[in-house]
Design brief:
Helix content: 25-40%
CATH superfamily: RRM (RNA recognition motif) domain
CATH architecture: 2-Layer Sandwich
Largest sheet: 4 strands, antiparallel
Order of helices and strands: HEHEHEEEE
Number of domains: 1
Structural class: alpha+beta
CATH class: Alpha Beta
Distance between the termini: 29 Å
Length: 95
Amino acid sequence: MREYDIIRRPINTEKTTLQRELHNQFSFEVARDASRVDIKNAVEKIFNTRVQTVKTMQVKGKTKQRGRIVGKRRSWKKAIVKLMPGQRIDFFEGV
């Protein structure tokens, strides 16, 4: 699998901004079949940084209702990547 197939998109919310500023952690939506080692290697190669730890979680899709029609959002995988001290990702600077 290529690096850009593993890392789907960055997640940018208030909570992830606090994690980035206080703990040097970055959140990404990743491929559901990607392992922690795959995610670590992809982040290190794409952003040219060193990764300390990777935590992953499966996010269940919510059930949504609009009138009588019931649907479901897709489930996805989230990765929280903690970088080594002194490392940073310039992509998130100024966001």
